[in-house]
Amino acid sequence: MPADDRPDSGRPSPAPRDLRSALRKGLRRRCPNCGAGPVFNGYLHVRKSCQVCRQDFSGARADDGPAYLTILLVGHIAAVAMHIIYFRWQPEPLIFFTILAVGSIGLSLYLLPRLKGAIIGFQWARRMHGFRNDPD
Ligand SMILES: [Zn+2]
Predict the structure, then answer these.
(1) How far is the CA of 55 from the centre of ligand 1 (A)?
(2) What is this structure's pTM?
(3) What is the three-class DSSP state of 45?
(4) Residues 90-104: what's their mean pLDDT?
(5) 8 A C-beta contact, residue 26 and residue 32
(6) Cα of 38 to ligand 1 centre, how many Å?
(7) Within its chain, how far is the Cα of 69 from the centroid?
(8) In angstroms, what is the span from residue 75 Cα to ligand 1's centroid?
(9) Disulfide engineering: 19 pairs with which of 2, 71, 118, 125, CB 3.0-4.6 Å?
């Protein structure tokens, strides 16, 4: 643990960051600091820094978190949709499978980058990992 992380290190603690704002900006796949620059270069590749405010993104460590959250959300939504579709319309099995497969894949592809942006926003707001020593 670096010496400046201790509560009694004598250094003033940095100003708190707004978590809700950072999560909202992350869900829009925008920089958690300025909200203007894109976080990703492509579908899921995190940029080195923000094009607008120069916020360094090298501290982002989303790892498997976005995939876990995506599976959690899509699984619950698909389970409810499966129940409603089956008991309301009772479609043919192949049509039923096709609706759920296309819906689940489409929803997963939609949610994955947004949840990754939100996790990066959360890490930035909480000064986790490489965002720990960012100046404001
Ligand atoms: Zn920015």
Answers:
(1) 5
(2) 0.85
(3) coil
(4) 97
(5) yes
(6) 8
(7) 9
(8) 33
(9) 125
